[in-house]
Recover the amino acids of this structure.
């Protein structure tokens, strides 16, 4: 299949997650998504801060793009009272940034085990406690907190919430408008219960992100994400479940991969648009 041209209905829900073209500035990513005919972009806080929040807001508006999500909040598993307080303050800033950018989805990466700690249940309780503290601020700003369960390989250092079921157990303590979940194929593809839990999530799905699981894994496992179609994930069943659950929002392509980052951004966007049209869009 050739790359769909700008304006193609096949691209109507496709979003470029900024990390997929990490060699681009925020401005270049916005311009690149617009030039390729993508209607949306997922942004990251650190590059936005470097480029300027107000400048980013204006650039997104001028390009006519939606901001599908802001990444990331979270990292609040430290039981130390002062560290917990600082994490809450940082997340409140993230909520304000999401609201300024016009997205109602703040992705939460829960955080891993604190240094020297081995108590997973305690770390998970910190996630519950932090979200409870943040919900009033998020509600006031019109931003939904979106818990991203992470592949178990990251439980120690990034995400103590490892399954969609665990994320939903937390989200369901709050209203649908307050707390949702992220379904990321990279993190959930291995789970035998993923289709069941996607359907359980229903309107709590705040973001659907796609990329592939490639082997052999690199030394830095964080960079083990591949372009859709280059790895082991069957995107059909999960995507169909996401659609059946009622999700009608944007689909972000989020890839952490050193080779893809080193490639020309326009080529990466053209490839992801083609693979999305082939492997994802037919199942929505």
């Amino acid at each position: 299949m050739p790359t769909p041209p700008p304006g193609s209905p096949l691209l109507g829900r496709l979003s470029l997650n900024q990390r997929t073209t990490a060699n681009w500035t925020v401005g270049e990513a916005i311009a690149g998504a617009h030039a390729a005919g993508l209607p949306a972009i997922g942004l990251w806080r650190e590059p936005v801060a470097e480029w300027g929040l107000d400048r980013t807001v204006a650039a997104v508006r001028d390009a006519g793009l939606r901001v599908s999500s802001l990444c990331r909040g979270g990292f609040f598993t430290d039981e130390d009272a002062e560290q917990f307080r600082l994490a809450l303050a940082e997340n409140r800033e993230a909520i304000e940034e999401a609201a300024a950018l016009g997205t109602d989805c703040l992705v939460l990466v829960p955080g891993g085990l604190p240094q020297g700690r081995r108590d997973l249940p305690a770390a998970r309780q910190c996630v519950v406690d932090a979200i409870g503290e943040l919900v009033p601020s998020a509600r006031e700003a019109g931003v939904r907190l979106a818990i991203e369960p992470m592949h178990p390989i990251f439980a120690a250092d990034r995400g103590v919430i490892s399954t969609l079921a665990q994320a939903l157990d937390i989200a369901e303590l709050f209203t649908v408008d307050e707390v949702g979940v992220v379904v990321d194929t990279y993190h959930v593809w291995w789970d035998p219960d993923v289709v069941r839990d996607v359907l359980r999530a229903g309107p709590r799905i705040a973001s659907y992100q796609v990329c592939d699981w490639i082997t052999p894994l690199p030394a830095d496992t964080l960079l083990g994400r591949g372009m859709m179609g280059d790895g082991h994930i069957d995107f059909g069943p999960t995507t169909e479940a996401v659609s059946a659950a009622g999700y009608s929002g944007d689909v972000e392509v989020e890839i952490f991969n050193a080779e893809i980052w080193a490639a020309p951004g326009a080529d990466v966007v053209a490839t992801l648009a083609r693979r999305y049209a082939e492997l994802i869009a037919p199942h929505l």
User: Anything to note?
Assistant: The two ends are 18 Å apart (CA to CA). The chain has eleven helices and ten strands. The beta strands are 14-17, 40-44, 66-74, 105-109, 144-147, 179-184, 205-210, 212-213, 225-226, 251-253.
